[in-house]
Design brief:
This protein has about 170 residues and is α/β, with parallel strands linked by helices. Helix content is about 35%, strand content about 30%. The chain contains six helices and eight strands. The strands form three sheets. Strands 4-3-7-8 form a four-stranded parallel β-sheet, with helices on both faces. The protein has a two-stranded antiparallel ribbon with strand order 1-2. Helix 1 crosses helix 3 and helix 3 packs across helix 4. The radius of gyration is 16 Å and the shape is globular.
């Protein structure tokens, strides 16, 4: 769990990690897909995942938990409820009714966009961004920009899975 680096010795982390299925060559050849549906089928691992985040963010004065579509919608709401924060969905275009603000971001082959309702975040809100996985960080960066444009202070991003092999490829060697 990338938000829990200081807790790597916590015995719950091994159980969480072992409950995530890796599916080779999905959705295309060469991709090692990290399937969290197997984690969700294990109530103990799912609870431990949420509990680790709740323990980390309790008492940090977070007022907003923003979940990135779609898997951030699975982990974000129970964290928000447990720490007494509101939950805000960050959605793909044309999924939210009413007025929205948008943030485009670059993908390997093209662009995408995140949107949030205008007024969902108030200036001075302290935000936690939640998603299932961090790969290149592009989606998380877009979420941060969107929240900051609305006046929030982003405290941290919380992801269940970090892809260290991508981190190694993207981090320059100094």
């Amino acid at each position: 769990m990338s938000a829990c680096k200081d807790r790597e010795q916590d015995p719950r982390i091994e159980g969480i990690a072992s409950s995530i299925r890796v599916v080779p060559n999905f959705p295309k050849p060469g991709i090692m897909f990290q399937d969290i549906t197997t984690l969700l089928l294990d109530p103990k691992a799912f609870k431990n995942t949420v509990d680790l985040f709740v323990e980390r963010y309790t008492g940090k004065d977070i007022t907003v938990v923003a979940g990135i579509e779609a898997r951030g919608f699975i982990f974000g709401p129970p964290i928000a409820l447990a720490i007494g924060a509101k939950f805000i969905p960050l959605r793909k275009p044309r999924k939210l009714p009413g007025e929205v603000i948008s943030e485009e971001y670059v993908l390997e082959y093209g662009t995408d966009c995140l949107q949030m309702h205008i007024g969902a975040v108030q200036p001075g809100d302290r935000a936690l961004v939640v998603d299932d996985l961090i790969a290149t960080g592009g989606t998380l960066c877009a979420a941060i920009k969107l929240l900051e444009r609305a006046g929030a202070e982003v405290v941290e991003c919380a992801c269940v899975i970090e892809l260290p092999e991508l981190k190694k490829r993207l981090t320059p060697n100094y």
